């Protein structure tokens, strides 16, 4: 088999779900600016719904990536190899910790990857809730747009950092 | 938090009040900050050896406990704030400011070099 199940799950986590979340957050941020209307102007149902669904999609994809990462991809990553095992293939954390030059990929990169996505998921969920609840007025309400924009912007930065670190980790010690 | 207009005024229905006021949005915003700060606090307490959240799912280690506890606090804060604010109109500036500050605290708290301070 060309790819193992664990490798496919890692790709689903990193490329499909996390990548999809990044694209959806980027689209929501762009739409928030491009679709902005003058204060108090009527918001068409179509515009409001479209923006709301992009934001909701970002939150759903991000939660799937976070939960999948924590409960499906992370356990085999951190599995401890049997005592005396020389070939550490299949034990990514052990591979990283065995070499001083790659140790930081666990102690720094992976530790960040464990926690920061949860912050992004909570903020993106709040943004999606606001986008959905206030879909009939958000695009024409500056204060709500700014609040939503702040949450999505912070999420975007965090998810991009985490994604980059994930690429580094997977490049050196892929989950096979 | 500053309040622009206490209560729903002369709203004829709860739905009309919900559409006009920003309380539900502010509750969601601040709750996200509280959830983020809770996660940061759990991580710092764990790094300092003061408190380690029990593992909810052993294969995922302590992360499962820390994140689950933070999510529970986030949802509880959201529910409480929503109950209190949903029919109010609040000044968004301070709420967004606190949310950003709590998110920043959480990012710093989950930054591994900070753990070396303990």
Q: Can you walk through the features of this model?
A:
- The complex is a heterodimer of chains A (176) and B (118).
- With 176 residues, chain A is mainly alpha-helical.
- Chain A has one domain (5-172).
- Chain A has helices spanning 5-34, 45-78, 92-98, 103-133, 142-172.
- In chain A, helix 1 runs antiparallel to helix 5.
- A two-stranded antiparallel sheet of chain B has the order 1-2.
- Chain B has one domain (31-115).
- By secondary structure, chain B is mostly helical.
- In chain B, helix 2 (23-47) packs antiparallel against helix 3.
- In chain B, 38% of the residues are buried.
- The interface between A and B is large, with 34 and 39 residues.
Mean pLDDT of chain B, as a whole number? 88
Provide the helix percentage of chain A. Answer: over 70%
Question: What's the arrangement of strands in the largest beta sheet of chain B?
Answer: 1-2
How far from one another are the termini of chain B?
Answer: 33 Å
The class by helix and strand makeup of chain B works out as: mainly alpha
Count of discrete structural domains of chain A: 1
Helical stretch tally of chain A: 5
- How much of the sequence lies in strands of chain B comes to under 5%
| Order of SSEs of chain B | EHHHEHH
| Strand residue content of chain A | under 5%
**Major beta-sheet overview of chain A:** none
Name the shape of chain B in a single word: elongated
Task: Briefly say what this structure is.
The complex is a heterodimer of chains A (176) and B (118). With 176 residues, chain A is mostly helical.
Key terms:
heterodimer, A: 176 residues, mainly alpha, B: 118 residues, two-stranded antiparallel sheet
Secondary structure layout:
The complex is a heterodimer of chains A (176) and B (118).
Chain A lengths: L4 H30 L10 H34 L13 H7 L4 H31 L8 H31 L4
Chain B lengths: L2 E3 L8 H7 L2 H25 L14 H24 L3 E2 L1 H18 L2 H4 L3
Antiparallel strand pairs in B: 1-2
